[in-house]
């Protein structure tokens, strides 16, 4: 049995779960949503990069919202595809072997250079990881970045989530969630010292849409939430609602 579904409406004071029939008390969490953190972050970010670059990113986000999701995105009920991922030490492992028939939450993020990805990952580590551990579920963060770069950035950010590299976006492509930033936005990021191509394992600009995929122990997708606007992310409550229903 998982946590009481009513925990999701609690913003302070924690929640209870009973894995294996035993009651556990998790620490207080869920004091603010990812969306609220992004709203708080955005004005400072725009002031830091300046109005010209901020306008480029705003246009990019508007274009992404207008275009919407591409055809071919995986759906609930589809089997979770397999692909080779790479650990921090560069060792290759198939996703199937990594999960070993366990339910899993896969968090696809664009790269450590994306501040919105960092907000989401920090939130998932703080609020989601304790719940995942109580369930005996895997929580894995996946990006196209080279393993050593992703691992170094995670250490610098104080992240200890399981982080794997999806070389060439092979897993993301099989889920139908690969995109390429616009030329204008790539130029704007270069002006900020961000080298998307240089950081990616395959030396291309291809990145995944931010997405969360929850698969059950049979490898069936039970949640796939893909965000075309990279400033928007799946909230912790929505992920746990799916875990409760597994």
Description:
It is a single chain. With 246 residues, this protein is an alpha+beta fold. It has one domain: Glutaredoxin, CATH 3.40.30.10. It is built from 9 helices and 11 strands. Strands 7-6-5-10-11 form a 5-stranded mixed beta sheet. Strands 1-2 form a two-stranded antiparallel sheet. It has a two-stranded antiparallel sheet with strand order 3-4. Strand 6, helix 5 and strand 7 form a beta-alpha-beta unit. Helix 1 packs across helix 2, helix 2 packs antiparallel against helix 7 and helix 4 runs parallel beside helix 9. The radius of gyration is 18 Å and the shape is globular.
Q: Could you give a quick summary of the protein structure above?
A:
The chain is α+β, with helices and mostly antiparallel strands. Helix content is 40%, strand content 16%. Helix 1 packs across helix 2 (51-67), helix 2 runs antiparallel to helix 7 and helix 4 runs parallel beside helix 9.
